[in-house]
Amino acid sequence: MAGNAISQLGCTDPQAINFNGDAITNDGSCLYEPTNYAPTGISNLASPLLAENSGVIALNESLWVLNDGGNNTSLYELDTLGNFLREVVVYNVQNVDWESLAENDTHVFVGDFGNNSGTRLDLSIIKIEKEQLLNSTQDSVPGFEMQFSYADQIDFSGPANGHNYDCEAFFAFDDSLFLFSKNWQDNLVKKYALPDEWQGTYITEPSEVFNIAGMVTGASIDKNSGNISLLAYIDNELGIYNSFIYMLWDYTGHDFFSGNKRRIDIGSMFALGQTEGIVLNASHKGFITSEEINNIITIPPMLFSYDFYDYLTNEQAELLDHKIGAKSPIYPNPVKDKLYSKTNGVYEIYGWPSGVKIKEGIFNGKGIDLNLLAPGMYIYRVGQSSFYFLKM
Question: Are 55 and 180 in contact (CB under 8 A)?
């Protein structure tokens, strides 16, 4: 019976309109009612240096942004109220068309892969030492350029704003960089994976395609929960853009579109400006930045916050929020390969929510091999205490 229950596929999110209470394993089929949300306006980004900001990340207590093509090779530090703190010049590189920022434990990455024309042969990722960038005594840091190309692009003739090989969004996760395309032609999104370091020109294949019905301009992941925010917009063909965010969670491995995919509409250009950057700095909340619009109307660049807790309050989201924390003796959490404990002794691992014992043994400091466990939530029990962990 337990085996049959574990194999039951379906929609596992109680907020979905097709929730299946008998399902144990999420098959990515969840459907949701149309959802509208108004981000909270924090401030206009008053500095003229930020008029064309295009990507954002959160580091420590600050936000870092960049400007897109034709601007300086600089990164700008802001506080979370949008106040300008400092400028750091990145040297040894060019800003052909910078569009996005990403970061891991040791480096910050600049995506120089904007490609409105579809003709670029010099797509690159710029790698910067995080420790140098965060050194407040330095006003410049070196950048190292790594070239790449798309394996599926064989036509470099464009047309401008009418092809499927633009990109404005990526993040770093599990020693890899994941790029999300901006498809002007068909409004799909393709996911490409690259290592976080390489030599020569890396050729990357698309590994997932999703009908996002818009054009992606930003991407961010919360590394603790694995939750993902994709920022996108759609042109209603009257020159008016409406922005939305797709939240992705409860997926398998790095197949980010295999789990829950919930679209949340956040408003039009008149309220938001030209939305460009997004950061998810907790499992369900973060910041959005917008670029100045200066055409028929003028809308300043702005900083917003968002909090999607109300849309992610199913049981799994609750556990991720409240059960994964510093008080737990197990780490890393989420875990990919080996789980460690701060205390030695007899342990047991149970499936969640099935409660079926999956593994037991004695922890002796060498790490518990979890490579054979399927991705999902589990319970680690030691003595009379239980702790939840997420297997990626």
Answer: no
Residue 102's beta-bridge partner residues? Answer: 109
Residue 361, token pair as written in the block:
């043994």
Q: How far is CA 218 from CA 276, 278, 313, in A?
A: 6, 5, 24
SS3 content of the chain, % helix, strand, coil (to 5): 10, 50, 45
pLDDT band at 25; cut points 50, 70, 90: confident
CA neighbor of 85 nearest in space, from 41, 39, 50:
50
Cβ atoms within 10 Å, residue 135: 12
For residue 228, which phi and psi values (nearest 5 degrees)? Answer: -125, 140
pTM of the model: 0.80
Specify whether the CB–CB gap between 123 and 149 falls below 8 A: yes
Average pLDDT score over residue span 155-181 = 97
Residue-level pLDDT at 326: 42
Residue 281 burial class via C-beta count within 10 angstroms: exposed 0-12, middle 13-18, buried 19 and up: middle
Residue 317, pLDDT above cutoff 50: no
Instruction: Yes or no: say if 114 and 126 are a contact pair by the CB < 8 Å rule.
Output: no
pLDDT in tens, 45-61: 989 999 999 999 999 99
- Domains of the chain, each with CATH number or no CATH: 40-316 (2.120.10), 325-392 (2.60.40)
pLDDT single digits (tens) 189-220: 999 999 999 999 999 999 999 999 999 999 99
Between CA 102 and CA 36 the distance in angstroms is: 27
Strands 176-182 and 166-173: antiparallel
Q: How far is CA 83 from CA 43, 49, 135, 283, in A?
A: 9, 12, 19, 25
CA–CA separation, 263 vs 319, rounded Å? Answer: 22
Q: Is the pLDDT of residue 332 over 90?
A: no
